[in-house]
Amino acid sequence: MTILDATTPDAATTATPGWTRVCRVDDLLVERGAAALIGDRQIALFRTYDGRFYATDQIDPFSGAAILSRGIVGDRGGVPTVASPMYKQVFDLRTGACLDTQGKEPLSVRVHPVSVRDGDVFVRIEGDHR
Residue 116: pLDDT above 60? Predict the structure, then answer.
């Protein structure tokens, strides 16, 4: 598992207020997740086969474990997804909605805007989920 730290001075450079540089595009493997820390927020970053980038909270809402970056990245009818490695719930990477609750009450994962500029990946954390 790749863990990226956006708290170092070089990595924390922002091109636009509110956006945090997390890594280079080439640091993210296609169809694999990477964990990153932005301030005190753990996020999971994903790069899909079609070249798109997504960010969610790293915490699996069903188990409470920081594991979503280790999930299986996939696609359901054109919808980019990640399946939690813990209990196998599947989340829409665009909205955070749970597409397969595995028989539990539906919960969602928070998603964050991602921007790519000059080969760098930026994430914006909006508000607080608590």
Answer: yes
Question: Is 130 a member of any domain?
Answer: no
Report whether pLDDT(12) > 50.
no
What is the predicted pLDDT for the residue at 130? 37
The answer to whether 35 touches 66, Cβ cutoff 8 Å, is yes
Residue 120, in any domain of the structure: yes
Residue 49, domain CATH? 2.102.10.10
Question: What's the structural domain count of the chain?
Answer: 1
Strand pairing report for 90-92 and 79-83: antiparallel
